[in-house]
Fold this sequence. Notes:
This protein is mostly helical. It has helices spanning 11-40, 45-73, 75-92, 99-127, 133-161, 164-185, 203-206, 208-221, 230-238, 245-265, 271-294, 300-331, 338-345, 347-367, 369-397.
Amino acid sequence: MTNSLVPPAGPQRVLALAQLANSVGDGAYYVTSALYFTHVVGLAPARVGLGLTLGWAVGSLVGVPLGRLADRRGARGTAVLLALATGLAVASFLVVRDFVPFVLAACAYASAQSGLAAARQALLAGLVGAGERTGLLAHLQATLNAGLAVGAGLGGLALHAGTEAAYLGVFALDAVSFLVCAGLLTRVPAVRARVPEKRHGASVVRDRPYVLLTLLNTVLLLRMPLLSLGLPLWIAGRTDAPAWLVSVLFVLNTGAVMLFQVRMARGIRGRASATRAVRRSGWVMLAACAVFALSAGASPWVAVAVLTVGAVLQVIAEMGQSAGSWQLSFELAPAERVGEYQGFFGTGVTVARTLGPLVMTSLVMGWGTPGWLLLGVATLGASYAMGPATRRAGERVDPGRPVPVG
């Protein structure tokens, strides 16, 4: 696997193009949606937050059954239908003008997004060998960041215009982007549906080692709102650094993932290397938190330098943790239930998005330096616990065989 942003020709490149298409739309949506729902739709900010929280809560519940549907009915067809459903859900926001329809649209959007993520993972698992999955996911993550950056720029133009037509144009763009994504997904080969020998209902929930692995990964993902919420509040309230540094650090993070995520994932080939990568990322994240804490009380330019160093450490930790967790989530899932298991593993992202803002505001802004250190220690603890959790899950995958965990 090379370090190029573009994956090899064939199904892998088509998957990357599909990822690029909908990430451009999503990037524009993310930077404009809050103002659209408050200024154009006319909802109170608290109701927007409540509606989106309810939507993602529902989405986290349906990810597993939709992933199971991909396993049993075919990953490609399910992914195409869910991409179309996501586009339709985004389009429904164009006509929403009250709270209840907004909540229903948010639930439909989050459900389709969660199911699409699980179906795409099942499709990826069926199209490439086990040794190539982490590398391809690294390519897709780099592509995702590139698309989000382009979309955020387009969304910024809409924010600058500030008109209702501009906001509506962004939502129309996002809806169309999922239609393009669906069209691209029809170009990849179909993956044969796999029906489990035994039907246990929501079997992944009964798989305690995998559930534990997912919970630990959720703790590691609590750093997700760091760039969008934690650092902006910290910079504005606890440092003398200029406000524009928030934008610089965001660009630094996005660019680093685009350029180096593939390289970071290249050395991960199994459970041992994956758990080592997660452990290393825990130490790096602890160092990042300690460095961020040092920025308080420093002169403006010293604070800029310290925060930049912290952001570099944070993105290194992010890339290592992502690559390691991708490998573990696939390798420890039964081959015939990849979509179902990925749907469950993906709920960690939803939970982190829901609880992360509370963690960031309580620890970072509430406790200051001790809060930063506690966040780093919690991350380190979860990263080390991934080793024993992987060993237990591996005993189910390979019963009677020693499980190598680095």
